[in-house]
Amino acid sequence: MKALLSVPFGLCAALLVLLGSGTAYGQYDSLGGPYVTDANTMLLMHFDGNLNNEGSSANGVGHGRPGALGYLSNSGLGLGQCLRLVNDATSDSAYVTVADSSTLDLVGSWTIEGWINIFTFGSGSGDHRWVPRLVIKTGDAVFWRPNYFVEMWGSWRGFSCGYNVAGADRWPQANSPTNSMTPGSWYHLTFIRDTTRNIIITMVHNAQRQLTAFATTAYDPILDNPPITTSQPIHIGFAGGGNDSWLDGFVDEIRISNKVRNFRVPPIITQVTQVPNQPSSVTEYPVSARIQAFSVGGLITTARIRYNDGGGWNEAVMTQGANDIFTGSIPQRPVGTIIDYYVYAVDNGGLRSTVPPTAEIDSTYFTFGIYTPNTQTIHLAFEQTSGTPFDSSLYHNVGTFPNNPASYSTDAKVGARSLHFDRDSTHVQFNSPFLAAEQFAVDFWLKSDSLIHANRILNKEGGNLDGTPADDWYHNNYELGIRNVSGAFRPSARYWLDSADAQFELRLDSVALQTQSWFRFMFERNSTTAAFEVRNANNEPLQRLTAAADKPRRGAGLLRIGKASSDGQPWDYIPHFRGKIDDLKIYNYAALGIVSGVGENGSNVPTQFALEQNYPNPFNPTTEIRFALAKATKVSLVVYDVLGRKVKTLINDDLHAGEYRVEWNGTNESGRSVASGAYFYQLESEKFISVRKMMFLK
């Protein structure tokens, strides 16, 4: 609802492929109406010339300019009349509300459904028809914290159904595949929340009541419960706030039930193993999934892993264990092999589903590679004169220039040439599973033509291990970029934590980047610690920052050099890098040796705040300052002269708990060398201040 990025990572969707129309078991409810009320009907609107509600709540109320709401025949669906909402202009403002009542606040199982025909829509947030709502129980504080919602996203032509969790920034949702909607076509949308299985389901049927899209997501029974309840009315055709949710089209036969209706639903596949890259010593690659037949009396008759190691598709049988967990294995493959795979299941009613959702439609798969530990995963020397950069590592990753190609320059730091990003919309990208790693090292030289805030020089984007589009590119495995801090451009290295919805960052505020000067960026992480160091053109260290760091989130997203995200994706406005890059190397271990250890206690988190004596002392040209933080806090580390005048701010940032090491090279805020003599450095946080003395000798 608020953003599609709110789906808990690692939960899966499945797409139906119908194998037959016969029913081998059970008696299903008819789908699409016309319906009649029963004890579980909270709302039922036929739109047959009025806004009457046959459910247990109030009748609807129309809003908008005169003539913006009307009724037309809907004999093609066998439903009498339908409601036309004219919203081709913002002045129309046509929508319907149903007054709030306790029966419309849903916290248990439910089925929300209705017909929608979208006439026109918008493809971005600047259009008032970007995310039209079929139905939404609008939030109180803000409209985008609803009890439930059923909507279409124009930017990817797909349907999304979900809810906001009470007291939390969580929006469990099940999203249909991209391009599930064609303008001018009728679709029946079904949104099921099943508290028995802890799943939510989105089904999309066409005018012939044939299932065209199916998605299911497992929700956490603790973290994703209960749904928020609100005192706002139900809105049809508009979200109840903002100006990007107007429906220009038709609706019909909207029903809300406080139970799971017994519709024909294909096998539910969740908790699929997303296999990470595997070392060459592993002899097989297990894959498990929870697979359930949805209807009473249903059985899973077939469960398989389909995989392709480059030599064609094969299948591995999955056998059923306790709690509907099916398990199978992909056999061992040699180093350098890239394996695509997906899981499918068939029930005794002839219904079939797959995970990932569009595996058999648009080749979206889970992917992993077989690697050798402690190896270089890419090396781009840029010594050629044309074409895409050549990778000399044993993995031979293949890159592409999606738009304008970069050129090769004789202004090089290593060897004879570098890669020059000298045109608009220029970046190079690599699609390879070998570049994702919990432990890594990234090493390259750069010379900037211009310095721009938030420039990403290199970004191993997040995405999903199932190969679905990387809308969450900033949930990255590793990223190096440039930040404007109080008018000075500072190097930044960061990644998204796998253990929390947060970002880990090391920013070197003692380094002032300059144009037309070579700098070496070095960023690595071992099993517990991350370190970031930048060196000058003489390969002399300018500053290093080290901190305890949980593991990063790995994903199947692209490695992009010169740009943050893909064209047309959110945050595409972030400018391209302009300048030269040389001798880029990435490893699947901490190969650079700049990481050092953290606290000695078992949790790697210090038990108290501390500021240590710098070493060496006296010093020339650099010294290292160590300090420890017992908890996350705002921290400043500042150097003063003997008169108490500020010389340089080394750190002024929010930091995680951990042990840190910072270098000072005897320069002031302007980068000029200071005079010999005594200096003081002060560490200050919310409840801790400590000062120590050091000697700088020339």
Q: Describe it for me?
A:
With 698 residues, this protein is mainly β. It has four domains: 42-257, Jelly Rolls; 268-368, Immunoglobulin-like; 376-587, Jelly Rolls (Sandwich), CATH 2.60.120; 610-696, Immunoglobulin-like (Sandwich). The protein is 1% helix and 42% strand. It contains one helix and 48 strands. Strands 27, 29, 30, 32, 37, 38, 39, 41, 42, 43 and 46 form an eleven-stranded antiparallel β-sheet that branches. Strands 2, 4, 5, 7, 12, 13, 14 and 16 form an eight-stranded antiparallel β-sheet that branches. Strands 1, 18, 20, 21, 24, 25 and 26 form a seven-stranded mixed β-sheet that branches. β22 (319-320) and β23 form a beta hairpin. The longest helix has 4 residues, at 359-362. It is globular and about 90 Å long. Mean pLDDT is 89; it is low at 1-25, 465-471, 567-573 and 597-604.
Question: Which labels suit this protein?
Answer:
Jelly Rolls; disordered N terminus; 1 helix; mainly beta; eleven-stranded antiparallel beta sheet; 698 residues; Immunoglobulin-like
Give a topology summary.
Blueprint: E1 15-18, E2 41-45, E3 60-63, E4 69-73, E5 81-85, E6 95-98, E7 110-120, E8 133-137, E9 149-153, E10 158-162, E11 173-175, E12 186-194, E13 199-205, E14 211-218, E15 234-236, E16 248-257, E17 268-270, E18 278-279, E19 284-292, E20 300-308, E21 313-317, E22 319-320, E23 325-331, E24 338-347, E25 351-355, H1 359-362, E26 366-371, E27 376-380, E28 399-400, E29 407-409, E30 418-421, E31 428-430, E32 440-448, E33 456-460, E34 478-485, E35 488-496, E36 503-507, E37 518-525, E38 529-535, E39 541-548, E40 559-561, E41 579-587, E42 610-611, E43 623-629, E44 633-641, E45 646-655, E46 658-664, E47 677-685, E48 688-696
Parallel strand pairs: 18-26
Antiparallel strand pairs: 1-25, 2-16, 3-6, 4-5, 5-16, 6-15, 7-12, 7-16, 8-9, 8-15, 9-10, 10-11, 12-13, 13-14, 17-19, 19-23, 20-21, 20-24, 22-23, 24-25, 24-26, 27-41, 28-31, 29-30, 30-41, 31-40, 32-37, 32-41, 33-34, 33-40, 34-35, 35-36, 37-38, 38-39, 39-46, 42-43, 43-46, 44-45, 44-47, 47-48
